[in-house]
Amino acid sequence: MEILVLAAGSHGDVVPFTGLGARLRQAGHTVTVATQPRFEELVTASGLEFRALPGELRRDLAPLKQATEFVRELGRGVVAAAGSGADLLLLTATTAPLGWQLAEAAGIPSVGAYLQPVHPTAEFVPVVGSGRSLGRWGNRAAGRLSLQLVDRVYGDTVRRLRAELGLPAVGRGVVRKRLEATGWPVLYGYSPSVLARPADWRAGLEVVGNWWPDDPADARLPAGLTDFLQAGPPPVFIGFGSMGGGEGERLGELAVRALRLAGVRGVLQSGWAGLTGSGDDLYRIEELPHALLFRHVAAVVHHGGAGTTAAALRAGVPAVPVPVLGDQPFWARTLHRLGAGTEPVPFKELTAERLAAAITRTVREPGYRARAAALAARLAGEDGAGRSVELIERWAAG
Fold it and tell me: Which of 80, 91, 149, 364 is buried most deeply by CB count within 10 Å?
């Protein structure tokens, strides 16, 4: 099959599809990933074809405005990125409302490939909810409301896209409801050991396990980092991924003070924030595969993104989650519920003293690492990409 993956967003929204795409390619399929130009090397290094999608997340905008502007930019180029067609579209939660229109216009099937549980359930509140259970009825109602808000964000862009494709105009949310009524298939790329499949989900919603990034076989840690790791006890990793843009100096000072209050060495990942810091007890890095580094650290301080959360658990390393927005508080609460992370420290309430106290608990109380290690053993027995290939081939065959 010719499979086109539409993936857009931050690094964590795209890199899992290098692993899934590589497994699909090994199974004999041709895989093209349409995403932002800055991920081209990431995609092609995995032996996948690349097509450019427009749009970049704006660090200077409020979250809702950022999402609306990003969707608008995607909509302006998604038809060109789709190219001459494919046998199957693989759509992320971000691209699905646009990809549905492409699939309808081309008359080809599509499959969802989601990193967060977005379908309503009575078992927990939506991933972007407050975190407090509203009861079974309330949780489901909140889940339906969250999807309506998504449809609102995409409404104008979907309307223009349908006109561009020559499709009839429809009301907001109509296409989603049609697909749900027909049992549109969705793969959820996170571990059922971390979050079990809700019992009230319909057929066709499959929690398959993580899609690990397709890291190069010859990837190695930088020599300087290797020397640093060998020069003392395991350090604590601190990184906020695509969060904290423009706050690098403040966050760097806060992180360094917290590490020193806790009496531990640290590895700082620059990230979008541009985290800074120096000293014999610190090492600063740019982007590198989490799978290479995390097994060497004592704990991971991170923003609670789905990918970083999974990577820390895969390494059997406890976490201090510092969630900022979106699905991050959801995964932060999940880590704490599993006993593999401290109680979340909200980004807006972050202080050096509070972070130091959380780091100290994480590295000194053995229960955190024991529970993280137990989860790592369970994740090692899962094959999310392999299971996904089986399901995609079955669904495509009808």
Answer: 91
Burial class (CB in 10 A: 0-12, 13-18, 19+), 394: exposed
Structural domains present in the chain: 2-210+382-397 (3.40.50.2000), 223-380 (3.40.50.2000)
Q: For residues 266 and 277, what is the distance between their CA atoms, to the nearest angstrom?
A: 10
Dump strand ranges (E) for the chain: 2-6, 30-35, 49-52, 88-91, 110-114, 186-188, 205-207, 236-238, 266-269, 282-285, 299-302, 319-321
pLDDT per position as a tens digit, 369-389: 999 999 999 999 999 999 999
Contact 316, 369 (CB under 8 A): yes
Q: Which residue has the tokens 């972070």?
A: 355
Strand partners, 301: 238, 320
Residue 58: exposure state from Cβ atoms within 10 A (0-12, 13-18, ≥19): middle
Are 193 and 183 in contact, with CB atoms under 8 Å apart?
no
CA 66, 99, 110, 168 torsion-angle sign: positive
Residues with Cβ within 8 Å of 153's Cβ and at least 6 positions away in sequence, in order, are 64, 67, 68, 71
What are the tens digits of pLDDT across the range 106-142?
999 999 999 999 999 999 999 887 677 888 999 999 9
Dump pLDDT digits (tens) for 292-334: 999 999 999 998 999 999 999 999 999 999 998 888 999 999 9
Place of tokens 């350090």: 235
Token representation of residue 260: 């020193």
